[in-house]
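It is worth pausing here to work through a concrete case rather than discussing structure prediction in the abstract. The textbook approach is simple: state the sequence, then state the predicted structure, then interpret. We follow exactly that order.
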Amino acid sequence: MKCGWSRGNEWQSQNGLKEGGIYFQGMTNDLFGNRVAGMEHGFWSPGSGNGRGFASGKTCNTHQPFGRFEDNVWHDNQRFGIYLDHQYSRDLERDQEAHVVKTAQGMESCNAFTRPDGKDNGFVSVIKNDFNYHNMFVGGYSIGDIEFDGLLSVNNLNNGYWKRSKNFAEPGRYHVKNSFFLADPNDGIGSATTLFPGGSFTFKMKDTKYAGSGKLEVPQHCGIYFHNPHNKFGSTCAVQYLFENVDFTELRGDQIFHFGPSDGNPMSPTFIASDNSIDGHKQVISGRLDGFLKVPNCSGPVKKYGNGIVCEGQNIRRLTIFSPSMGDEIKISGPGYDVSPNWDHPVGGTNAGHIWYDHSHGSSGHVDHKYTKGYGIHVVLGETYRISDLQWKDDIFFQLSDPELADVLGNTDEYVNLELEMDGFVESCRLSVRESRDWHNADGVGKEAELSECSLAFRTLGYLATGTHKTTTTTKAPTTPPPTGDCSKCGGAEWDVRCEHGGVGCSACGIKYCRFCGGSPPYDIACPTQAPTTTSSSTATTTSSSSGPSSTATTKSTTSTTTQTTTTIKTTTTTKEPEYDCNQVCGGNTFYDERCWTSSDPHGGLGCNACNKPKCRICGGSPYISCP
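Step two, the predicted structure:
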């Protein structure tokens, strides 16, 4: 049966507001073997944050997982075939009436994170063997923890339609697998084009084929520039697409990718493969980021890949900072950004490292986020980047790529070295993909998220930039300093935010952040209020051996009250060979770390002197830092 949806039906609204042929408010129902044609939507689940009628205040519909959902057909409908709307499936605790069990915190199991550990509360729902044809759209808007397995989408105007998503709570799942996006050129309706999502996550696609006229377009409607007051694209849409056995070879036309459909950010996506999914190439990023043409083994632009830049290594990753606004933009310097800024729309200087604050993104609901907005950019693994124009407003939180992407690619660790600069002060840190993701998701960070090494380095910067020992500034100081306290009764100890995870001299007189410092060993850790002694700034870049992370450095600048003289000295030091093998001498969960017993150690000696070896550091498991 072929129905002419373009002609409509007398019972249909023509404004897109009517229900679907099958309409769900309670998602946990089985739906299999159905066929719907000639409706506004074939299937519609307009998930809402609350129930209706007797269920009002007792359910969170948008987070209810589906039951058995398979072998359904939706065709010749005016708008969507399958329309999941806003659906983030979660592991709900419900009573016999299917109402969410309430705790002192309310409908707690509706939340994005579990308590007290902050794990992802997603529950995977599977849409299996769904067949859509001759509709306008297929998919939904914001969809999380829902796997499309065996999706057959043929000759719809848009064979896929999806705006936002997330990483799966359950490892090994795929957003799309065993699926087909097809367009018969002899059919007068539709194309093979899919408009797929953006965000701070990795979209995984496996064993899937595209054929006919169309392309994969990313990120759909994500980071829209006119949703931001600075009129630049939102930067947290830096999605990573992982292809495993995805076949684009039978697509017609001269392009298989398109960057930035429907006003989405055209600089944000990157496509990654380990096989022949991208003709044997390992990675493609936006051609508008022309500084990456200077990165080794990158070339382009290549028209077939949406005029993207092709790289023969899988070493470019997203870096996301969830934070309050530190101004419309911050600046990143390093590999990929050593070019003159292109200020024309849509680039807006992003090619030269101008990162714009993303006001456009919010939460997926039922979550106590600290921040849902921030900054996003791409970085080359193993390299050093300086992030400047920072301001202290509050703590900030970092994400480098996604642990499951590293797992699939077989990478034990992925990291970058960061130099964070605020008002003439610099703190260095190492950011790893293996850092805790508790209380983290694609929407932001929860209020209980712990401070990573780089978050602690930023807090130290805030202390230095707002402290009373600083004589002058070149920019307006933030109005709210980092958290501080009184250590006057602790015999000369000072308040030190680096004591977040403990360390040498910390917990003086029983107060966590009070630290004995500036004295004789072992208390020769530099005190936070030790004033700068020079009128120059220096940046130390340290290359470490494979036994441990690179050294960190603190850089300070001072100025007189009338003039400012800043001399930059850039040096490169190669770390000497380790004096001993910590794994051999001390056993597992230790590593050699040159930062131990130095004032530049962001962890203040926590875990150092393992088995009486000064440079051996205990790692892994609370309260110690993550192992490299």
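Step three, interpretation. Residues 4-14, 468-479, 531-574 have pLDDT under 50 and may be disordered. The two ends are 60 Å apart (CA to CA).
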